[in-house]
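Quick one, probably user error.
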């Protein structure tokens, strides 16, 4: 940002504000010092400080003032989503902050809410990235943070800009919340469709047979991966958990490994195979997709279970049953949970109940599910498009505000608000 409107100045952050990083956590043996609450990177969200999960740390009495957060301080993340900022409005109780957070105090010429919105613009347009360090996890070191360019209008104009932005952005925030509620309703509808078409086992229609997954088809775990097989003369592609999503396969990143003679054919996928994630977060355990021949000859590893339907079961109907079991938590009840990952063994999957209606009924249910779920997917797509329009409008409003141009594009704002109401 090299040019600023007439009457504005372009300054470095250090010229108009004092900045400091918080207390480095001591992971060693406790020293018996007083425990105080402190704010972490995760507590600082865009526009607000989340105090639902506050940790404590030891802090010496002579450090309390240095690492204290005062009402009106701006806090900005040093790592992760760098620059993510909020104003602290924490009341009279003492609060410290850790080293992963920058604390900013104005020297008098800078309205800190103005800086909060400028940091959001810099996050959107890539400015903060140019000041960051780190390859895997981004960091915004204090010295580079202090070098940030600040387009600085007079103080009264900064307050006016913040007021205009908050008026527009509050409407966008309300619209975004409406869109989020719409997405939650669609997720509930998605689950309801599956649970209605495939009811609980004790409510199967009389003409349906109740069997187990093992009776309805063949279950097999894929081939185990091994470092020795990363290279070799017979490199062939395989699918893993990262490729298997609900009712779709993502083939953009397919790995290869060496398959000794005869092993590839055993684990080669056939059209009609249903693939289920063996290991996943608990709510997504058993996430299934149908292999329809895409990707050519390809195999699967032991992070995936393969189900091959018997003659009395349509593969598309099996996929429907497994989607139902995932969304209703049936697979979760069978999973073995380690830390935050669930595992669904072949033995446990085999014992899960499985309905077998007549084939014409299976066809009818598959067609009905497709119609209803595609309608839900279309609505999700419209909501996604509105959220992207909202994000673009938000950035445009921020860019206009800090360039001195009038802010506000009411027609686009109304479009997003209308979609949120729908």
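Nope, works fine. Designed sequence:
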């Amino acid at each position: 940002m090299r040019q600023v409107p007439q009457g504005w100045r372009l300054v470095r952050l250090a010229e108009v504000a004092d900045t400091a990083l918080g207390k480095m956590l001591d992971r060693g043996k406790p020293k018996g010092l007083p425990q105080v609450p402190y704010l972490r990177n995760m507590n600082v969200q865009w526009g607000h400080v989340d105090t639902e999960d506050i940790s404590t740390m030891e802090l010496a009495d002579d450090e309390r003032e240095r690492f204290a957060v005062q009402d009106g301080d701006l806090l900005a993340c040093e790592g992760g989503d760098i620059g993510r900022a909020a104003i602290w409005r924490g009341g009279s109780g003492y609060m410290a902050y850790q080293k992963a957070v920058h604390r900013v105090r104005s020297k008098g010429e800078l309205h800190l809410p103005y800086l909060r919105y400028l940091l959001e613009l810099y996050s959107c347009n890539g400015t903060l990235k140019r000041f960051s360090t780190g390859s895997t996890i981004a960091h915004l070191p204090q010295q580079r943070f202090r070098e940030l360019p600040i387009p600085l209008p007079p103080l009264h104009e900064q307050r006016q800009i913040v007021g205009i932005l908050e008026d527009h952005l509050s409407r966008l925030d309300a619209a975004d919340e409406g869109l989020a509620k719409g997405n939650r309703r669609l997720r509930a509808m998605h689950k309801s469709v599956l649970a209605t078409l495939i009811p609980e086992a004790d409510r199967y229609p009389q003409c349906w047979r109740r069997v187990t997954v093992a009776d309805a088809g063949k279950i097999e775990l894929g081939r185990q991966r091994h470092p020795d097989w990363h290279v070799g003369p017979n490199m062939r592609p395989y699918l893993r958990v990262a490729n298997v999503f609900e009712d779709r396969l993502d083939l953009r990143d397919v790995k290869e490994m060496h398959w000794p003679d005869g092993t590839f054919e055993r684990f080669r996928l056939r059209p009609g195979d249903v693939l289920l994630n063996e290991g996943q977060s608990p709510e997504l355990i058993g996430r299934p997709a149908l292999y329809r021949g895409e990707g050519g000859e390809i195999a699967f590893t032991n992070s995936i279970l393969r189900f091959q339907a018997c003659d009395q079961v349509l593969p598309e109907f099996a996929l429907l049953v497994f989607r139902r079991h995932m969304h209703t938590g049936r697979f979760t009840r069978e999973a073995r949970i380690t830390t935050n990952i669930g595992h669904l063994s072949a033995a446990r999957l085999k014992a899960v109940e499985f309905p077998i209606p007549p084939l014409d009924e299976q066809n009818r249910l598959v067609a009905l599910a497709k119609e209803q779920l595609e309608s839900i997917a279309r609505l999700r797509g419209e909501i996604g498009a509105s959220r992207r329009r909202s994000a673009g409008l938000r950035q445009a409003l921020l860019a206009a505000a800090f360039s001195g141009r009038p802010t506000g594009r009411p027609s686009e704002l109304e479009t997003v608000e209308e979609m949120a109401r729908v």
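The mean pLDDT is 92.
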